[in-house]
Write a structure and sequence with these properties.
Chain lengths: 253, 253
């Protein structure tokens, strides 16, 4: 049986990145797409609990859901797919998801939701807002996905792939840790047509810490970055240290 | 100078939990509250990038923002607070945030955003939807916050506190790792007044894995759970293993 592949993203089902991914992944298996009806960037792991969702079927194995990437994966697994997928691939995101971005990213969240349901998952991003090099990014994702299908992944770990804008399919892969990116802490203040103030969160990327071995450095070096991202957020090392905080269990003075 | 304390939550500025927290924290320092204007549960780290935000001043040091907990912390730091806070405390959430909940939780995300800005942070939840025991939970949070103000926290680590419903302020504290909770994978399907189908994500909590040392077990044992949560999501152990995936860098056949 060919692998069943679930594809989602956060740029929305009409984004060019997801179309490139569908094409590249169809060489590996039976592709089902369940993706947000509209752009959902920076929604992170948000789940829609307080509103109903609609499912719009676009083609035989292609569905738009009026929610977040997490909603899409949740609905796909419980209402749409004929069986459990063998892999979930989320992307190709238009713009990098490196370092702390991973925390905010809807693209990574789509893959995370599948990971939490014990489905091996890959998130893939094209590390430039300006580039349209989605086919190369999709080909890189397919290469990683083929390895995942062959080798599996440990429970609770997904692979986060970032592809530089200016490389071809033969670019070297680098296995990386997550780095640290900086954005301008900018909030634009303005007045609306009724002269009431509003605030808009924005800010261009300012750069990243130059740390060898990180996703940021790998992409700057024109390599395809592959980072293992874990779902267990416990900081085990500091957990040992916390044992010394004995004042919490002393009787109040 | 008294510590400057930033308080936020995800249940909204009018929730009883945040009022109990403001009261308890005011013993430790100068409290500023910047919280969502409406309930934001399960929004995770979502940031509002595509819409403007409004700030409604409710009192001298109390502001409602029409966005997510992440938005609130971002706006507080850049537009509202007179200086950098010494600590951020998010909560008291009505309902547990244990195990995988941490990934979806807006309460934890509020503390995370401050952590990413290198502000020591604590998230606190009352582990029951039925209990109104917010004063005990807020007292526990204040106790943990006092230790954090005295000792500090490592960069990129926050403390996630869960308080059982049926304990007093003298309940024992336990330092825990994150456990695994289960929810029913339930999507309710129904028709709207125009006979179009809609889908609603829901599902009651089914239980949790019985793993000694976890937050879930500690709360079940009537202890106040304190878990260190990290912002670096790299799975370092598997990163070593990935070095063996040499097929990614072999020339295509």
């Amino acid at each position: 049986m060919r692998p069943l592949i679930l594809i989602t993203n956060d740029d929305g089902i009409d984004a060019p990145g997801i179309k490139a991914l569908e094409k590249a992944m169809s060489a590996l298996g039976d592709v089902w797409t369940v993706a947000p009806a509209s752009e959902q960037s920076a929604v992170s792991h948000a789940i829609t609990l307080w509103n109903p969702l609609r499912i719009h079927q676009r083609a035989e194995q292609r569905f738009a859901v009026t929610g977040t990437p997490t909603d899409c994966v949740y609905i796909a697994l419980s209402k749409i797919l004929p069986r459990r997928p063998d892999i979930c691939v989320s992307g190709v995101n238009h713009g990098a998801n490196m370092g702390d971005d991973v925390i905010y990213s809807g693209t990574v969240a789509g893959a995370s939701e599948a990971t939490l349901q014990d489905i091996p998952s890959v998130a893939v991003s094209l590390a430039s807002y300006k580039s349209q090099n989605f086919d190369t990014a999709a080909a890189a994702a397919a290469k990683v996905a083929a390895s995942v299908l062959k080798r599996g992944l440990p429970r609770g770990v997904l692979l986060n792939v970032n592809v530089p804008k200016d490389v071809g399919v033969d670019a070297p892969f680098k296995f990386t840790k997550l780095g640290r990116r900086y954005y301008g802490q900018i909030v634009t203040e303005n007045n609306d047509p009724r002269n009431k103030p509003y605030y808009w969160i924005g800010g261009a990327e300012l750069g990243f810490d130059d740390i060898p071995g990180t996703d940021c450095n790998a992409v700057a070096d024109h390599c395809i970055s592959v980072s293992p991202v874990q779902m267990d957020l416990t900081h085990y090392k500091f957990l040992d240290e916390l044992g010394k905080w004995t004042e919490l269990n002393e009787a109040a003075e």
